[in-house]
Amino acid sequence: MHSREAKLTQITNWAKDNPAISVVLLTSSLANPDAIKDYFQLP
């Protein structure tokens, strides 16, 4: 699995497993697959 998809799956599963979470808003460079990679996405 591509690392972007893996991270999105991890975030989604975390939110689903926490009843206190009702909304997830993604605002990082992961939100746009065409964004320039930031410090956290570089190898």
Topology overview:
Elements: H1 3-16
Question: Largest sheet, if any?
Answer: none
Helix coverage percent = 25-40%
Distance between the termini: 16 Å
SSE sequence, one letter per element? H
How large is the share of residues in beta strands? Answer: under 5%
Structural class: mainly alpha
Number of beta strands? 0
Which descriptor suits the 3D outline?
elongated
The DSSP helix count reads 1
- Average pLDDT, all residues: 83
Query: Would you identify the regions where 5 or more consecutive residues have pLDDT less than 50?
Result: none
Number of domains: 1
Indicate the radius of gyration in whole angstroms.
Answer: 12 Å
InterPro entries: Aminoglycoside_adenylylTfrase, NT_sf
Pfam family, one: Adenyl_transf
Description:
The chain is elongated. The longest helix has 14 residues, at 3-16. 33% of the residues lie in helices and 0% in strands. The chain has one helix and no strands. It has one domain. It is mainly alpha-helical.
